[in-house]
Amino acid sequence: MTDPNEIDQQADVTEAVSEVAQAGAEAVEAAVASEVQPVSFGELGPGEVQEEQRNLNLLLDVQIPVAVEVGRTQMSLEDVLKLVPGSVVPLDKKAEEAVDLRVNGKLVARGEVVLVDDCYGLRITQIVDTASRIESLR
Q1: Order of all β-strands in the sheet with 106-116
Q2: With respect to CATH, is domain 64-83+94-138 assigned 3.40.50.300?
Q3: What angle do CA 104, 111, 113 make, to 5 degrees?
């Protein structure tokens, strides 16, 4: 059987803990409320844009390899050594399929081959989105 004095002591302790917890919560709320201040941002100026533009201008004359990939195939070294003028190498793409434009080895766009003043060219029909570019790296 439980002693009535012990029950009263437990009730007093529970009440005291509750009061301390409530006082602590109120103190935290008051501290947070007193420390919260509105944020103000300064005017955005053209300074950063000009800096970025200057950095981009440093790269504009850098040359990088650009290649148009009509198709691919795998051949054994023996078959490569048998190639002569007039040999036909079958590729993995059909004639009507878009060809790939690769910049520095990475797929950037797709398009169709065109003839411009007796020279081949590429008419870009699709710019590859970021997700597709990442997938092409795998």
Answers
A1: 66-69, 99-103, 106-116, 119-127
A2: no
A3: 100
